[in-house]
Amino acid sequence: MRILIIGANGFIGARLATALCAAGHELIIGVHRPRSRHGSLGPDRFIHVDLTRDVSTDWIKRLEGVDAVINAAGAMTGDLEALHARGPIALFDACARLSIRHVIQISALGADISAETWFLRSKAKADAHLCGLREKYGFGGWCVLRPSLVLGRGGGSMAQFSALAALPYPPRLAEGTWRIQPLHVADLTSAILMLLSANIQVPAYLNLVGPEEMTTDQLTGLLRGWLGLPPARLIPIRESVLAVAARLGSLLPNAAWRPETMAMLRRGNTADPAPAQAFCFQIRPIAEALSHDPATQADLVAARMMPLLPLIRGALAFVWIGSGVLPITLPPAPVNHNLLAGLGLTQALGQMVLYAGAALDVAIGLALLFWRRPAIWFLLGQVGVILMLTVLASVAAPHAWLDPFAPLLKNLALLAASFALLGMRR
């Protein structure tokens, strides 16, 4: 079967592409930005797509000879109306014109036009459009899958909950009673493979959930055990505090905890597993699924390092912005004059250099705060700037290495933090 996958750079899409290849299907990978998740596939398998811009006519040529389409694209930030609604609707219209046999929309449990979050509302628009086309034209192989929390290596939810579980004293989210029904990504991919092979009419909507409900506290305990850690006392975090943290997270492009995330957990992420079971989908309890995918030392290290990434970025940003703002807002410090004089600069030229350096420092700090995924050239450039400033300061005032306040020795810590950020980039 020739299958077009949209969103194959994501966690679910990447795992699904691997499973479909293993099952012998011919894949076309629709991506917006090429990445390295599918290095084993030839470049002829990839086509450039942009759900935020492409219209129905753009999809017609891409869909020639395609037997099935799977839309696994999704995000928590950005133009969700275009990414989750307008773009998929244009894709589904093109699929209807060409009478594509199988179209699977991977949505989210709780997607509804009246839902609290824009993420779920935007997903619901495309879901409804697909089901409307299905009913109008009798496309029995078209289906909207609405999975609960999907866990597995490489997944954002797995990484975030594992990071919380790996803390010495994990947080208890609100009262610890928010209920979820997680499933493993391998079971989700198995369900999709079964849908593609079905020669009967499949359900229009299908909720995919684990067979057992659990609380966020229970998930924390389960993941601690999976990581090989002993049980630990949970630290209660009030819902009001979580709400403030979520609002602060919405201001930053890199924060995982946002009002949308909190709202979806608070409302509960559960459903009746019976309809999926009636269709012969065997969704395993998440504890059983994880027992067949045991954690390694690398998983524990990754879980422990994840909370440090925003901490390192924030600390570096604070240092850069502070080192740029303070020299031009406080009275001139003797050390600045000594450094500039040691480089043989006149007072006027030294002042220009001081202001240019301050602007560069602030720019680097702001980029660290607000650039979602800093490019490798930027992170290497940050290291280069630290090295350059250290060398210049060493030439101008070598005695600064012996200063009791260690202004140059601190650069070694900044370099180490910068290399750590470089190593943890995604």
Question: Could you please describe the fold and organization of this structure?
Answer:
With 426 residues, the protein is of the alpha/beta class. It contains 17 helices and 13 strands. Strands 3-2-1-4-5-6-11 form a seven-stranded parallel sheet, with helices on both faces. The chain has a two-stranded parallel sheet with strand order 7-10. Helix 1 links the parallel strand 1 and strand 2. Helix 5 packs across helix 7, helix 13 crosses helix 17 and helix 16 packs antiparallel against helix 17. It is globular and about 80 Å long. The model has no long low-confidence stretch (mean pLDDT 88).
Radius of gyration: 26 Å
Summed up, the helix count is 17
Structural class: alpha/beta
Task: Return residue spans where pLDDT drops below 50 for at least 5 consecutive residues.
Answer: none
Order of helices and strands: EHEEHEHEHEEHEEEHEEHEHHHHHHHHHH
What share of the residues does DSSP label as strand, in percent?
5-15%
Distance between the termini: 33 Å
Helical percent range? 40-55%
Largest sheet: 7 strands, parallel
Which geometry do the CA atoms define? Answer: globular
Q: How many beta strands in the DSSP annotation?
A: 13
Averaged pLDDT, please? 88
Major sheet: arrangement of strands: 3-2-1-4-5-6-11
